[in-house]
Amino acid sequence: MRKIEHIGIAVQDLEESNALFAKLLGKKHFKTEKVEGEAVETSFFQVGETKVELLQATNPNSAIAKYLEKKKPGVHHIAFDVENIEAEVERLKGEGFEILNETPKLGADNKLVVFLHPRTTNGVLVELCQEIGV
Fold first, then answer.
1. b/e code 37-66 from CB counts within 10 Å (16+ = b)
2. Residue 134 pLDDT > 90
3. pTM above threshold 0.90
4. Max alpha carbon distance in the chain (Å)?
5. Is the pLDDT of residue 11 over 80?
6. How confident is the model over 59-86, as pLDDT tens digits?
7. What one-character-per-residue DSSP string does 29-96 give?
């Protein structure tokens, strides 16, 4: 793992949250993107080398919608940038971590992503991400 790539925050209202984080961070978001496979709309803020990703559900059956039903808006996951996502999945499986999707899938911001189950990471949903084409 090379760095924290982003911190994902589940929100009810993306427009309202964009305004809040723009005030907090002193800058506007640099892009929004829909990820149909995850049924979310995302918005990204750059903070140094790390991004903050706001996630709003676009479908009431999405993982983010279900998260918000159980919990309130807040930190949803932490994502780590990896050089080789397949190799990192194998390494982590060997260390005993439970992988939610062993086959990387397309995520936001031109990334392949894999998630680790929170029950094996002290309650934290961990995302691995690799830039597509790297």
1. ebbbbbbbbeeeeebbbbbbbbeeebbbbe
2. no
3. yes
4. 43
5. yes
6. 999 999 999 999 999 999 999 999 999 9
7. --EEEEEGGGTEEEEEEEETTEEEEEEEESSTTSHHHHHHHHS-SEEEEEEEE-S-HHHHHHHHHHTT
